[in-house]
Amino acid sequence: MSDRHPTLLQPYSERAKTATHPLSRYLFRLMDLKASNLCLSADVTTARELLALADRVGPSIVVLKTHYDLISGWDYNPQTGTGVKLAALARKHGFLIFEDRKFVDIGKTVQMQYTAGTARIIEWAHITNANIDAGKDMVRAMAEAAANWKARIHYEVKTSVSVGTPVAGQFDDGEEQNNGGSDRDSDGRKGSIVSITTVTQSFEPADSPRLAKTNEHGDELVFPGIEEPPMDRGLLLLAQMSSKGCLMTKDYTQACVEAAREHKDFVMGYVAQEALNSAPDDNFIHMTPGCKLPPPGEEENGHVEGDGLGQQYNTPAKLITLLGTDIVIVGRGIIQAADPPTEAERYRRKAWKAYLARLS
Ligand code: BMP
């Protein structure tokens, strides 16, 4: 770990000013505003539980991590489904959604998996991640897909059927017009058209405030103190894992660092077990799973047992103060508690304290 890198001693509010990625700048500001560097890994099994948990724990977190493919009853409707409902909760409580999809494949395939298919992840997840074992071109492919998506969402959803005589300006230049050829007359109308039927269909992103307002009561609520996140999408590179015997080598991790530097406009940072910023102008964000606190009342920096299936745990103090991560990702530590919101607050306080300790 690069223990003397300047970002380790910089407040998140300062890092918000120099981060390259618009979503990282936003996230650092959100962390500062909510005094939270906690991500909930919402690994529950039904959509109903997921939405209820997001609503209850939302006030304590800045990121909610999903595995959409372990949720039964996930509603794929792009306008009213689970992704849209999560996005509304994200706006209400002020958190970003991170789909822990761990993309790994050839570029063309990941582009399609990211933007299309059943889940249309790009539409509701601000952040996703990739294992770059397949090579760095995959990152470029995902960056391109995200840029194309962002360019497309400037068009809004509009499915309309109109019958009548269109006025000038109704068609964009170059748009196909089934008018049999016509000239505009002096008042701008297309003189030779008696009647025309136009079907226009475009779309709107799942996290558009306007779309969500048509959804359910309360979905129009927006977290105070900060604007809504930018429409940019961000990628985290899976640079190291928390699991025992993980096969990711130092060379692989270093390749992630290089890929991140090459795609600063799309890569926000890493899922890693330690801080990886080492070049003078690195300001990537680090999120770290494999985090658990000993039960309340026990030595807070004591050893925490793994789960018997390869998962290994460290405390927020070790991960943030010593190893320099920015956001801890906690799943079962919170979900399996008797009262998840209270436990999430305990994790938030400890993780924030660990960050303040690092600064001092
Ligand atoms: P838990 O806190 O319950 O162990 O959950 C950890 C979560 O983080 C899981 O969703 C897992 O898929 C994810 N994760 C991990 O545990 N280690 C990694 O290295 C990368 C992960 O995404």
Automatic annotation (TrEMBL):
Kindly tell me the pathway this chain contributes to.
Pyrimidine metabolism; UMP biosynthesis via de novo pathway; UMP from orotate: step 2/2
Q: Please state every residue range assigned to the domain named Orotidine 5'-phosphate decarboxylase.
A: 37-347
> Which EC numbers does the record give?
4.1.1.23
Question: What's a BP term from Gene Ontology annotated to this protein?
Answer: 'de novo' pyrimidine nucleobase biosynthetic process
Q: Which GO terms describe its cellular component?
A: cytosol
Keywords for the protein's UniProt record, in alphabetical order: Decarboxylase, Lyase, Pyrimidine biosynthesis
Positions of the UniProt region annotated as Disordered: 166-190
Q: Which GO terms describe its molecular function?
A: orotidine-5'-phosphate decarboxylase activity
Q: Which SUPFAM superfamilies match?
A: Ribulose-phoshate binding barrel
Report the superkingdom from the record: Eukaryota
Instruction: List the active-site residues.
Output: 100 (for ompdecase activity), 102 (for ompdecase activity), 105 (for ompdecase activity)
Sequence similarity: Belongs to the OMP decarboxylase family.
Q: Which PANTHER family match?
A: OROTIDINE 5'-PHOSPHATE DECARBOXYLASE (PTHR32119:SF2)
Q: What is this protein called?
A: Orotidine 5'-phosphate decarboxylase
Native species? Podospora anserina (strain S / ATCC MYA-4624 / DSM 980 / FGSC 10383)
